[in-house]
Request: fold
Amino acid sequence: MRAGAAARRRPLVGANWKMHHRRADAEAWCRAALAPGSPLAGASPAVEVVVFPSFPLLPTLEAGLAGSAVAWGGQDLHPEDAGAHTGDVAAPQLADVGCSWALCGHSERRHDHGEDDELVAAKIAAALRHRLRPLVCVGETADERRAGRTLAVLDRQLDAALAALAAPPGGGAAGDNAAGGGPGWALAYEPVWAIGSGETATPETAQEAHAHLRRRLAERAGAPAAAAVRILYGGSVKPGNAAELIAEADVDGFLVGGASLDAAVFRAIIERCA
Reply:
């Protein structure tokens, strides 16, 4: 159960809309999410919330969430700041529409686009150069889990990310992220076998992975940094399992996929965390 240092970490919940919603849907979502009585409507809610829409919807969220405590971010970014990269989006462009976060290394990017640890690290560095907070995703596939390689995969992915977080080129948010510490970034454990499958890791399974990641953080970045970093769980999170999962000592919030598309359902998950 949550206790000690874990209880002092403010929960963080991300809404990853993936390739869903159009402008009217996004406008309606913002109205519902910020309606009076919503846990997202306050000036300083107990749970920190960030929404990751498709790129065309970022201006809609900038308008719909303006003045609220809810942040928004990009689902991806290119390692370069500008250039001939058709179809890509750069960190300065994300910052220009008010983004404060960027997803880095989501399993669907790793799978669909062949992103490896080196590329993910370069994207983390690009985010930091422009004071975007990276939400770094790690997780094993079903085959890797069956082969008993879960912890080795997590170590490899985390170590590559920490190399970028420890020394972001060009300055950026280094002061907040040096050696992987501080609140300037977050980590998300997303077991690939649970994403969109309806199959959720048990609270015990999630806690085992999160505790391992925090131990690895302590080994690489020191105990204070490890205690400060929030580790989210992602993988078929719903109101019905959120309370059980968030009760674990090293589960500090969620990266929510399909359940985040409905503002009322997403609000219910936030309430479980609060």
